[in-house]
Amino acid sequence: MKQYLFAYGTLQEGRAPAAVKQLIEKLKPLGTGYIQGRLYDLGDYPGAKPSKSPHRTITGTVFELPDDPAVLRDLDKYEEYSKGRPSESLFVRKKLPAKLSNGQRLTCWTYFYNGKVNESLRIANGDYSAVV
User: Which CATH number do you get for residue 106?
Assistant: First the structure.
């Protein structure tokens, strides 16, 4: 069964730091997508928080993950997500629907920021490329 990832920050092509660049090259980009949520500028990277409002969306890239469980484990390490200790993780990985710009809908893994956020740091248009 195919798995997908919605990336909205440093996991996107062209924004990946050297530490994960080779990992990102293993992902197959499917195009621009959108999820419901709020996006915050945390300095060196953005952080997403879920939202129930359909008017709050985050822009990112939808990727197809390769059929290799090591890739998702390596992404978890990069995002400082521990499946066994989610409350202690910097980001938590959750599945939710994403809509591609062509209208296709896919259920994607997404990393949500697990810390507190300052509302004044919210990226109003939900697009990290507007900040960097």
Answer: 3.10.490.10
